[in-house]
Specification:
This protein has 9 helices and 2 strands. The protein is an all-alpha fold and about 325 residues long. Strands 1-2 form a two-stranded antiparallel sheet. The longest helix is centred in the last third of the chain and has 41 residues. The N terminus is likely disordered.
Length: about 325
């Protein structure tokens, strides 16, 4: 049976200034590496399929799909860069230096907020489409959506500099010993901007969509004697709204499931060391949300399954494939 070895120093030549390291049991280390590798690969591949599909096929160049594209880009970067680098943070010691440590944190501090904001924008888009369908085409235009996407990424970059600027000026100032990779952030502000505000917006929008769906259902029952064509139209609208309500409900549930453990631990003030299994789990749970986003938002669409088939069979390499009918 694997057991923890006696603590050793990360930098033996620094004596008491060095952090202590513990050799993780081989079975636990292998499990972490396998899971992280699978999550990273799956997240990058799924989101890359979304990026290629929406970028290549002209029929998919809609305002809603532009938001899905922006979400897929942020989640793709999380799967390609953030998750693999997170494996280094699961090690007992950090050997890449204080400056590299701070620079690494810039990537998740940009991509994770961008992913969350894109979720909010998608919820707003669906809210307008369901609650105000007659004015959707005039309120949600390509130019406005592009502007929102640009502002989303500008905000995310500003957000990262806001929280990490002091750490960049004085790298390693938050470390208690050599061999740590720790940054100092204002947890209250991060909690409000990254969790409370986005999830509140999504919940409010979801409740409104749910109310509209229920209202449509009641309206349908109260007009049973209406003409057949009107009744069919009402059924179609009501089904569409219920489907959107269910989708947003899944979004809220998955977002809470992935983010609540991290922020609950942060608020509790628990001191989780860099190599602890609990810290590793809650960190990857946040990033795993990026793997679930394409499943929630895209795999439910028939056009995505068709575009996957065209991509896998390399039919997108054929001339004029961008004009293919996949809707």
């Amino acid at each position: 049976m694997d057991t923890l070895k006696e603590p050793e120093l990360c930098f033996p030549h620094l004596l008491n200034a060095s952090c202590r390291k513990y050799a993780r049991p081989h079975s636990e280390a292998m499990l972490i590496y396998v899971l992280v590798s699978c999550i990273s690969l799956l997240t990058a591949c799924l989101n890359l399929l979304v990026i290629v599909s929406i970028s290549h096929f002209r029929q998919l160049h809609t305002p809603t799909n532009l938001l899905l594209l922006s979400l897929a880009v942020s989640d793709f970067l999380i799967g390609l860069i953030v998750v693999p680098f997170q494996m280094l943070l699961t090690e007992p010691c950090w050997f890449l230096g204080d400056l590299v440590c701070v620079l690494y944190y810039f990537i998740p501090f940009i991509t994770v907020p961008a992913s969350v904001i894109n979720m909010v924008l998608i919820s707003i888009d669906r809210y307008v489409a369901i609650c105000d369908p007659l004015r959707y085409s005039t309120r949600i235009t390509h130019s406005r959506v592009k502007l929102c996407v640009v502002l989303c990424w500008v905000y995310s970059i500003f957000y990262s500099f806001l929280f990490l600027y002091d750490n960049l000026k004085h790298p390693g100032s938050s470390n208690s010993c050599y061999g740590e990779c720790v940054v100092n952030v204002i947890l209250a502000a991060d909690l409000i901007l990254s969790f409370i505000v986005p999830i509140s917006a999504i919940i409010i929008l979801y409740v409104r969509v749910f109310v509209v769906a229920v209202s449509q259902a009641r309206s349908m029952r109260s007009h049973i004697t209406a003409v057949k064509q009107q009744r069919s139209l009402t059924v179609t609208v009501q089904r569409s709204e219920l489907k959107a309500a269910r989708t947003l409900g899944v979004v809220v549930a998955v977002f809470l499931m992935c983010y609540c453990p991290f922020y609950c631990v942060s608020l509790s003030g628990s001191d989780l060391i860099i190599s602890s299994s609990a810290n590793t789990f809650i960190a990857f749970l946040v990033y795993f949300n990026s793997c679930l986003n394409p499943v929630i938002y895209v795999l439910c669409y028939r056009w995505f399954r068709k575009s996957i088939k065209l991509i896998v069979t390399l039919q997108i390499l054929q001339p004029q494939s961008c004009k293919a009918n996949i809707l």
